[in-house]
Amino acid sequence: MGKALIIGAGGVASVCIHKCCQNSDVFEEICIASRTKSKCDALKAKLDGGKTKISTAQVNADNVDELIALINSFKPDVVINLALPYQDLTIMDACLATKTNYVDTANYEPLDTAKFEYKWQWAYRERFEKAGITALLGSGFDPGVTGVFSAYAMKHEFDEINYIDILDCNAGDHGYPFATNFNPEINIREVSAKGSYIEDGKWIETEPMEIKRVYNFPEVGEKDMYLLHHEELESLALNIKGIKRIRFFMTFGQSYLTHLKCLENVGMTSIEPIEFEGKQIVPLQFLKAVLPDPASLGPRTKGKTNIGCIFIGKKDGKDKTYYLYNVCDHEECYKEVGSQAVSYTTGVPAMIGAAMLLTGKWNTPGVHNIEEFDPDPFMDALNKFGLPWKESYNPDLVD
């Protein structure tokens, strides 16, 4: 069917590559490229021998010319960007220059400010449209599946959706006093930033971790969760009919928050460079170097994740509530693909989004968020490739 260039060789990329190989009718050939070629070679060695043909390459994703040269030599039908969010725009530039479809899982944020929003990538809309290629933004879980869930609810369950609460619960235990389940730098930037939600078309800002709720998650139990800013709020507010309010909550244990507060108080989470022994270092990047590598958490992590959306709206003039969610087991994920569930829940949808483009099921040139397409083939693929969804018509609501 087609060829995919996968940029990145971390935990999410590893899952995505496993899943491309499981879906070899669509992914006939993949090239894994990263700054560290040995990581790509290790993934190839693990998965070689199946139907999908695998090659590897070294590339610096900050360098547009290097990216263009690689795309021109491999000639992929789609580029799956699983590098860092700071590199979204250079990879999009290279896709534009070579007229290649683009998929990512997280929106752009500049290196010098912890501000993630879609405006930088949305600015590419006309250029992608003119080039006749598609950029699919945010094909992870949140953003990603949460957008597909919203489109599915809109298509099948509601005439209008007024309230969406996105709930992200990771009840996994890795046994470390403090570690992050994905890139520590991105994770800590996200949780130490101010929270925000959208109400009546406006952003309402909150202090970091100011709004806390306790929620009883199906198959997991009661957990503390906190309101965070999250990028999909911005696109869902535009694309889902009838929205009055959208919020995003994520669970954190007390030990994590205590460690984070302490690190914050001593300046270790800062992204401002400081002078140390004659060199400029960024404290948060140094902290990343001393924390456990998220990829190493797989064999240690036990427990489940539960990520989903609670919708409140109207159908045939009547009020209605609906909850769509997925429960994923860390140990099952590790058994299947050698990674924990946080990488799994992002890597699987990245593969599915790319498959939607390769098979032509989703094919509208321009820059699009995932909820703008027909959700049904994506929802079917979630069930098929390891992220089965569940639904409830009488969920506990978040006040």
**Oligomeric organization of the protein chains:** single chain
> Can you tell me the residue ranges where pLDDT is under 50 for at least 5 consecutive residues?
none
The overall pLDDT, averaged over residues, is 94
First CA to last CA: what distance?
47 Å
Structural class: alpha/beta
- Total beta strands: 18
Tell me what portion of residues adopts beta-strand conformation.
25-35%
Helix content: 25-40%
Structure in words:
With 399 residues, the chain is of the alpha/beta class. The protein has 14 helices and 18 strands. It has helices at residues 11-22, 37-47, 64-74, 88-98, 119-122, 125-131, 145-156, 184-192, 232-239, 254-265, 283-290, 330-337, 341-358, 376-384, and strands at 2-7, 27-34, 53-58, 78-81, 101-104, 134-137, 160-170, 195-199, 202-206, 212-217, 221-227, 245-251, 274-276, 279-281, 304-315, 318-329, 366-369, 389-392. 48% of the residues are buried.
